[in-house]
Write a structure and sequence with these properties.
With 568 residues, the chain is mainly β. The chain is built from 4 helices and 39 strands. The strands form 11 sheets. Strands 7, 8, 9, 10, 11 and 15 form a 6-stranded mixed sheet that branches. It has a 5-stranded antiparallel sheet with strand order 1-29-28-27-26, with no helix packed on it. It has a 4-stranded antiparallel sheet with strand order 2-32-31-30, with no helix packed on it. The protein starts with 27 loop residues before the first strand and ends with a strand. The relative contact order is 0.13.
C-alpha cells in the first residue's frame, strides 16, 4: 500500500486518493463487555504524531514515541513520553527523552528488553538517493538510559517513491539476546526504480545481537545470510512484530496497491514469505509476459500515480521481472476464516467475496486495511472468548479509496483467535472496537489495551490520543468464581534469591497446571499438577532468573489464581 507526503516511511500505509476529512468521534466498542475511553492526549506543540507505545518491564510504565516529519525531508523531531497515572483513570504524558538525548535519526521503531534496555530503530539520510538503518540501545542507568549504537548499515538506494518503507519495527527475543528488525521494501510489488528492484537490505527481517556495538550491516543479501544476520526474507513491510506466549514470532504484513489480501505471518528463521512473487495469496501478475493492468480486476482504475517505474507506470507489462529463486518454497500467510476482516477478491471474476460466507479462508486480512499494533493476551488474563487472543489494529479506514473499494471498514481493533495445527496456524478475526482515528500501535496491561491514534493523516489536527480499551477479565482467586473450587496458591519466600516454594491447595480433583510468568507475560516455567484433593508443594529454582517481578499462576478448568513475587 502507498504512503502519502508526510508519511511514516516503513511504518504506515494510506491511500493517496483521500475522501474529505471525517468528523472526529470517540471510538466505540463492538463486543459485549468492552469499553473505550480516552486516557491521554498527545501534545501537538511540535506537530508530533504518536507512532509507538510499549511497556517497560523494569518499571511497568507505558512509554510513547511521538515524532514529526519521519518520512519527509528536512528536520525531524521525536520525543519519548512516559504515561503517569492520574485520578479518574487518565494519564499525563511526561516527556522523558528528546531526540538529542537518544540520538536516533527519524526514530520509528521502539521496544524494551526484559531487563529494561531501551531499543530504537531509525533511518539516516546517506545522500540524495540513499539511506541507512540505525539501531540504538539505551542501557538503564538510574531513572534514565545511557545510549550507544547497536548497528548501522551500509547505505542502500531509495526509490524516492511512496514505497520506500525503510527500517521501522523491532522486537526483542524473550531471552533478551537478539533484536529482530524489519527493513521494508522499496517497491510496491518488485517493480524497478533507478535500475534497481530490491536491495540486499530491503524486504527482509534482520537478527542482530542485542549487545552488539557499532555493528555495520552489509547491503548484500548473501553476506547477511553468511554472517547470520538474515532472519527471513520476502517480507514487503512487517511494520510490527510480537512474540506469542509460546515464543513464536508473528508479524502483520502490509500488501501493495493491488487488492491482494494482507497478511499475518508466523515468522521463522530461514523462511521466504514470497515478496515480490507472492503477495497475500496472489501470484504477482507483472512477472508474466503480456500482463495488462487495464484488464486486472485487482487494480483500481483510479491508480494514475506519479511514481512511474522504469518499465512504465508501476502496474505494467514487465518483461524483465526476475524469476523466483530456484529451490525456494514460499511460506503462505495464516488463513483467516472470519467472521471479520475476511473480504477478498475472486482472482478470476474479480467479484468481492467474504470468506466466512463462502466457507473459505482469506489470507489473512481484507486488502488495504494496513494491519498494525499486534499484541497478545500473554498471561491469559482475559475472559472467554478473548482468553489468550492476539489483537491487531487497522490503520486505514473510511475515506481510504482502496479500502472503500473492498467494502469499507477499518480504523478498528480485531481480536485474533489463533489455532495451531499440523500445517501451521489458522485464525478467526472478530471486531472488538471501531471508530479510531488511524490507530497505529497498542500495548497490553492489566486487561486494558492501550491504543495510540496517529490522528489526521493528511494534515494537522485529528485525535492524537491514547485510547484505553478495557476488556473483560477472567475471574481470579480474589474474585468470586461461580461453582469454582477453593483455589489456594502461596509463594514463599518473597522476595526470593535462589528458590521459591509454590504451594497449591485444591478442595477437589480438577485438571490444573501451574505457570510462572515474567513481567512481560512470558511463561518461564510450566508444571502440570496432579488432579487430587489437598496440598501439593513444588520447589522451584529461580537461580539465573533476571531480577524483577514474576507471577505464579494456577490455572484450572474452573478458574485462575495468581500470586506475584520478586526475585532479587
Amino acid at each position: 500500500m502507498r504512503l502519502a507526503g508526510h508519511a511514516l516511511l516503513g511504518l504506515l500505509a494510506a491511500s493517496l486518493l483521500a475522501a474529505p476529512l471525517l468528523a472526529i468521534a470517540q471510538p466505540r466498542p463492538d463486543l459485549d463487555g468492552v469499553s473505550v475511553r480516552e486516557a491521554a492526549a498527545v501534545p501537538q506543540t511540535n506537530d508530533e504524531h504518536p507512532i509507538r507505545i510499549a511497556r517497560n518491564p523494569a518499571d511497568g510504565a507505558l512509554y510513547v514515541l511521538a515524532t514529526s516529519n519521519p518520512g519527509g525531508t528536512g528536520a525531524t523531531t521525536s520525543t519519548i513520553y512516559r504515561l503517569d497515572a492520574q485520578a479518574g483513570e487518565t494519564f499525563d504524558l511526561v516527556p522523558v527523552l528528546t531526540h538529542n538525548a537518544h540520538g536516533t535519526p527519524r526514530a520509528v521503531g521502539m521496544a524494551f528488553g526484559p531487563d529494561g534496555s531501551f531499543y530504537l530503530v531509525g533511518n539516516a539520510e546517506a545522500g540524495d538517493d540513499r539511506t541507512r538503518l540505525v539501531v540504538r540501545r539505551g542501557t538503564p542507568v538510574g531513572t534514565s538510559w545511557r545510549w550507544a549504537t547497536v548497528a548501522t548499515s551500509e547505505p542502500y538506494r531509495l526509490s524516492r517513491t511512496w514505497f520506500d518503507h525503510r527500517a521501522n519495527a523491532v522486537a526483542v527475543t524473550p531471552d533478551g539476546s537478539t533484536l529482530i528488525v524489519n527493513s521494508g521494501a522499496r517497491t510496491d510489488h518488485g517493480e524497478m526504480y533507478g535500475g534497481v528492484r530490491e536491495e540486499g537490505l530491503t524486504a527482509i527481517l534482520l537478527q542482530i545481537p542485542a549487545a552488539a556495538r557499532d555493528l555495520v550491516l552489509p547491503n548484500d543479501r548473501e553476506a547477511l545470510r553468511a554472517d547470520g544476520y538474515l532472519f527471513a526474507e520476502g517480507i514487503r513491510n512487517t511494520a510490527d512484530l510480537a512474540f506469542a506466549p509460546n515464543g513464536d514470532l508473528f508479524g502483520p504484513e502490509n500488501a501493495g496497491d493491488r487488492d491482494d489480501s494482507e497478511e499475518l505471518n508466523w515468522l521463522r528463521e530461514g523462511r521466504h514469505y514470497g515478496f515480490p512473487w507472492r503477495i497475500g495469496t496472489s501470484t504477482t501478475p507483472m512477472q508474466f509476459p503480456g500482463y495488462d493492468p487495464a484488464a486486472d480486476p485487482f487494480v483500481s482504475p483510479a491508480r494514475n500515480l506519479d511514481n512511474e517505474a522504469d518499465t512504465g507506470w508501476y502496474f505494467s507489462d514487465d518483461p524483465t521481472f526476475p524469476a523466483p529463486p530456484d529451490g525456494v518454497a514460499f511460506t503462505e500467510p495464516i488463513p483467516n476464516v472470519g467472521p471479520d476482516a475476511d473480504r477478498y477478491r475472486d482472482p478470476v471474476t474479480g467479484a468481492l467475496l467474504d470468506a466466512s460466507d463462502t466457507g473459505t479462508a482469506a489470507g489473512t486480512f481484507t486488502a488495504h486495511r494496513s494491519p498494525l499494533g499486534l499484541v497478545f493476551d500473554a498471561d491469559s488474563a482475559l475472559a472467554a472468548p478473548l482468553t489468550g487472543s492476539a489483537f491487531v489494529l487497522s490503520f486505514n479506514g473510511p475515506g481510504d479509496s482502496l479500502l472503500d473499494r473492498m467494502g469499507g471498514g477499518g480504523n478498528d481493533l480485531l481480536a485474533l483467535d489463533l489455532e495451531a495445527g499440523p500445517g501451521g496456524y489458522t485464525l478467526s478475526a472478530t471486531l472488538v472496537a471501531s471508530g479510531f482515528d488511524h490507530p497505529v500501535d497498542a500495548a497490553m496491561g492489566d486487561g486494558v489495551l492501550y491504543v495510540i491514534e496517529y490522528g489526521n493523516w493528511f494534515g494537522p489536527g485529528g485525535s492524537r490520543s491514547v485510547q484505553a480499551v478495557t476488556l473483560p477479565r477472567r475471574a481470579t482467586a480474589s474474585e468470586p468464581l461461580p461453582d469454582a473450587p477453593d483455589l489456594a496458591l502461596a509463594v514463599a519466600p518473597n522476595p526470593a534469591r535462589d528458590a521459591v516454594t509454590l504451594r497449591v491447595t485444591l478442595d477437589r480433583p480438577v485438571h490444573a497446571r501451574l505457570d510462572v510468568l515474567d513481567v512481560l507475560g512470558r511463561t518461564v516455567l510450566r508444571a502440570p499438577l496432579s488432579a487430587t484433593t489437598g496440598t501439593q508443594v513444588l520447589p522451584v529454582s529461580v537461580r539465573g532468573f533476571p531480577s524483577g517481578v514474576y507471577v505464579a499462576r494456577l490455572v484450572t478448568e474452573d478458574g485462575v489464581a495468581t500470586r506475584s513475587f520478586t526475585v532479587q
